[in-house]
């Protein structure tokens, strides 16, 4: 151990931390506060630093755990085997903005808000918005999504290329700035969503989008969950190019009102946003109003000014903290599933009923425009029966989603908590995934214990 630390110190100097507080902070995320701490934390400044660190860890056969801002929710940053946490948060250069081609290359520690601030004068923006001001390297590693996914997609189609440090310390570049390619294996797609288990992403080449000429946002209450979700499906079937379609159930709306000091109706509610030219947005709104009326929703509360929209979406992005405030001192299971749109109403209604029958406080919300929703299941860790009920409710939700042809995670990733459900979802294909992992990481030092049950 000491030889390894000495070698790391020679690379990093005072950018290597052994403090217990630093280590503890880097071993947990909001979804798993009991994560395991690494033996040390490294703060590289360049891809070259990361490559040198990887060569050192490979030589000493020590685990490496990449870290962005710690906003992942499935314990991707935990260090169950100790090792080195590699905090990329100081790698914050925006390497190249190519406005004419609508792409940008950034270092992994750049956050989405930092990037969009830099892009303001170009007329472009990066639309993927998972809620937290996550790092773009971390968003690529977890294949993040968010509120704009219904229109702009997830990280997968918006990442054009990567710079990756392999477990043995080589530096590779995947993809290109061309809009399409048929050259070789799609290594970019392999690394996007790999959760740090086969390499360390140090730079990301991203697709940008024009800032819409007009943006209009609205909040619309509904009398019940079923009609609210049915309205979402109808709007999509009417080919309205929605930018955002968020559902918050009555429990989440109660939490938001208390936390954000707002006065929304405490019933199932849609948060909607429309992007486009003035005439296009007017047409979208009229079609959406028709669907809302047919499903018993309304009235609309509009937010057209930038500051009003930011206030509205801040309340939505604070949903996690609002849910936590419903039961101070409680623990939370944060989970997410995604199903075909045609099964969404059935799944959400069944899930709400299941939570209520078990006596659980568990808000539901989500990016329903692409069939994805989240549940925050609160429980008292000292109450054995309630803890068991919370975990049983989570498992039941995941199993229902898989039975409906969906997935156990729409955007959080597998991490540690959903490894068993990965087997249920993909069956024998998991062994092929494991074989790829082992071929690229034969020493099994890249974020061990994540995605796959340990052999």
Task: Write a concise synopsis of the structure shown.
With 455 residues, the chain is of the alpha+beta class. The protein is 38% helix and 20% strand.
Secondary-structure-based class equals alpha+beta
Shape: globular
Low-confidence parts: none
Largest sheet descriptor: 7 strands, antiparallel
In the CATH classification, which architecture of the largest domain applies? 2-Layer Sandwich
Number of separate structural domains: 4
> What separation lies between the terminal Cα atoms?
24 Å
Number of strands: 18
Helix content: 25-40%
CATH topology of the largest domain: Uridine Diphospho-n-acetylenolpyruvylglucosamine Reductase, domain 3
CATH class wording of the largest domain: Alpha Beta
Structure description:
The chain is α+β, with helices and mostly antiparallel strands. The chain has 4 domains: 2-87, 2-Layer Sandwich (Uridine Diphospho-n-acetylenolpyruvylglucosamine Reductase, domain 2), CATH 3.30.43.10; 94-210, Uridine Diphospho-n-acetylenolpyruvylglucosamine Reductase, domain 3 (2-Layer Sandwich), CATH 3.30.465.10; 214-320, Alpha-Beta Plaits (2-Layer Sandwich), CATH 3.30.70.2190; 327-424, 2-Layer Sandwich (Alpha-Beta Plaits), CATH 3.30.70.2740. Helices cover 38% and strands 20% of the residues. It contains 17 helices and 18 strands. It has helices at 2-12, 20-25, 47-60, 112-119, 136-141, 149-152, 155-158, 187-191, 225-237, 250-260, 278-294, 306-317, 319-326, 344-357, 384-403, 419-426, 429-440; strands at 16-17, 40-42, 64-67, 84-87, 94-98, 103-107, 124-125, 159-165, 171-175, 200-207, 209-210, 214-221, 244-248, 269-276, 301-303, 331-338, 364-366, 372-379. The strands form 4 sheets. The chain has a 7-stranded antiparallel beta sheet, sandwiched between helices. Strands 5-6-10-8-9 form a 5-stranded antiparallel beta sheet. A 4-stranded mixed beta sheet has the order 1-2-4-3. The longest helix is centred in the last third of the chain and has 20 residues, at 384-403. The protein is globular, with a radius of gyration of 22 Å. The protein starts with a helix and ends in a 15-residue tail after the last helix.
